[in-house]
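Quick check before the chapter quiz. The format below is the same one you will see on the exam, so make sure you can read both the input and the output lines.
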Amino acid sequence: MNSRPLIVLLVFWMGGAALAPSALAQSRATPESVLVEGTRDDLWVVETFKQPDGAAAMSVRERVDATSGKWREIAQLEDRPIAAAAVGNRLAVATSDGWRLLSSGSSFIGPSLPNGRVIAGLAGDGDALWALAGPSAAHTPEIFRWTSDQGWALMGRLPVDAAGGAGLLAVRDGAAWIAYVAKDRLYVDRPGNDGAWQHLADVPAASRYKLLPGGPAPLLAAGDAGGQWTIYDLSAKPAKAIQHAKISGPSDVAISGTSLRIVSLTSDGAKQIGFDDFGRGARFGPDTIAQVAPPVGTAEWPSYVLMGLMTAAMVVALRTRTPPSEQTLEKSHLRIAPLGRRIAAGVIDAVPYLLANIYVAHNVESGSYSGDMIHEVYLPVLGGLAVYVLHVGISEVLFGRSIGKFLFGLKVVSVDGTPAPAGRVILRNLMRVIDVSAVGLPFLLILLSPSGQRFGDMAARTLVVSDVDEEESGAGEGEDDNPSAGF
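Here is the expected output.
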């Protein structure tokens, strides 16, 4: 039998399976927006991606080590962020469904604002969270403060000039600062000694703006739709523009440690440029600070369809191969193994791989996952797969059967019923890598195969069989005689 068509199809399938996900990743999600928050010790980046179906997916990343530049993902949410703020060593993120405190390994869903108010802005002050409640038909814009022991408390209302629209909130020295656009100017107010709002500064109106109260001097960042950011020193009278930076892509500004950072999000990654915490000094960057990894969504179905078409192409070609003769097997007192026993044996053999996947899934669901894909996902799964392939392959080379097959009276033979050579056994087991990476599609191949062979059996010209004497004695009584996965 000429094996050239099989080899060509195998290379095509493996190449397509490897290249399709990376090609489709470019179209499955696009960067939409980014929020950046920082403290003296921490820095967070909230990346929002738009899925092809219009839904949003959010990835929250935390800097682990400023020296090495290592980052980790601490949360994925299927929503768009409204605002974010640092609360101690945790990040508060508000969405249309409420707000939550996020950190590595934990997620706390916070209580709603009083009277069903909706959060329009957030600010952090140590372990306290401040929220700006947007205007509604029944309420004017108000400011609330939350602590874990006292809950939400009303702190005041916005000035009359800001009451008609949403403003921006920040906290400095325990007091709320607000920024808002009115009369074609961008205003910054803070509470005076008498509790009334005191006008601090005003600058030209901007489409984006952010108060940066965490540095040595209070700063205001104002940006336009073209990506031009201007940094104003609010301690100067009047406020003075001290820095200009042109940024491409969605961007945001924060102060972390002793530097002011402007972070932008592109298809190649989240990048930063920076200055000192006064907004001055020599510019550094752009540096990549976090690899873009759009959360997996419903847009992955094209990769499954593509692999399915490739598998179907192999089915058409492989069905032309001569099936084993039933008379040949009967002469050796063998029979194609029943479905139930083959599935049971396959599950037992695959325990190392299944346990590795359960371990990874448990870490993700429990919040223990830190975002280190190499050490916390790939290595455990590949380790489990390696143990699975090695223990089955070695057992079948030495004894003609694996542990699962031994328990259920099955063994591996050549298509003519003779013991399978070691080379064929090794080949059929190496093909397990394709079986587990194809998300179950090889089962279609097994059902269409004349002799119930999975792809590894077809490639190696092997069968999984049971002794006729064992089945007639009742070992296979009541079982389905249809072929199965041939694990």
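If your answer matched, good. The chain has three domains: 1-29+297-321, 30-290, 323-472.
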